[in-house]
Amino acid sequence: MTRAPLKTSIATVCLAGDLREKLSAISAAGFDGIEIFEQDFIAFEHGAREVARMAEGHGLEITLFQPFRDFEGLPEPLRARAFDRAERKFDLMERMGCDLVLVCSSVHPEALGGIDRMADDFAALGERAAARGLRVGFEALAWGRHVNDHRDAWEVVRRADHPSVGLIVDSFHTLGRGIDPDTIRRIPGDKIFFVQLADAPKIDMDLLYWSRHFRCMPGEGDLDVTGFMRAVAATGYAGPLSLEVFNDQFRGGSPRTIAVDGRRSLLHLMDQVARLEPEIAISAPPMPPRIHARGVSFVEFAADEGEAENLGALLRAMGFRREGRHVSKAVDLWRQGEARVAVNTDRDSFAGAAHIAHGLNVCDLGLAVDDAQATVARARALGAATFAQAAGPGELDIPAIRGVGGGVLHFIDGSSGLAQVWETEFRPVEDDGPARPAGLTGVDHVAQTMNYEEMLTWSLFYLSLFEVEKQPMVDVVDPGGLVRSQAIEAPDGALRLTLNGADTHRTFAGRFIADSFGSSVQHVAFASPDLLATAEALAENGFAPLPMPDNYYEDLSARFGLDDAYVARLRAASILYDQDAGGRFLQLYSRPFGDGIFFEIVERQGAYAGYGGPNAPFRVAAQARLMGPPGLPRDARSSMDDQTRTRKGGRP
Ligand code: MG
Ligand code: MG
Question: Which one of 21, 77, 267, 494 is CB 3.0 to 4.6 Å from 17, fit for a cystine?
Answer without folding.
Answer: 21
